[in-house]
Amino acid sequence: MDEVNDCRRANQERMTAKARRTARKVSARGSLFRTFP
Questions:
Q1: Hey, what's the torsion of the CAs at 24, 29, 32, 33, to 10 degrees?
Q2: Dihedrals φ, ψ of 10, to 5°?
Q3: How many domains does the chain have?
Q4: CA distance 29 to 32
Q5: Which residue stretches belong to region Disordered (predicted)?
Q6: Calculated CA dihedral for residues 36, 13, 22, 30, nearest 10 degrees
């Protein structure tokens, strides 16, 4: 259970980092941060 949780958390962090990078590039902060809280 813990291993699965760790993997899921790592994946989510990676997605969030990617989303933040994309948000910075597009610089459309409002909509992107609403999509990825």
A1: 110
A2: -60, -45
A3: 1
A4: 5
A5: 1-37
A6: 30
Q: Would you state the pLDDT for residue 12? A: 92
Domain limits at 18? 2-35
- Written in H, E and C, the secondary structure of the chain is CHHHHHHHHHHHHHHHHHHHHHHHHHCCHHHHHHHCC
CA-CA distance, 22 to 16, in Å (whole number)? 10
* Encoded amino acid at 30, one letter: G
Cβ neighbours for 35, distance < 8 A, ≥ 6 positions apart = 19
The pTM of the whole model exceeds 0.90: no
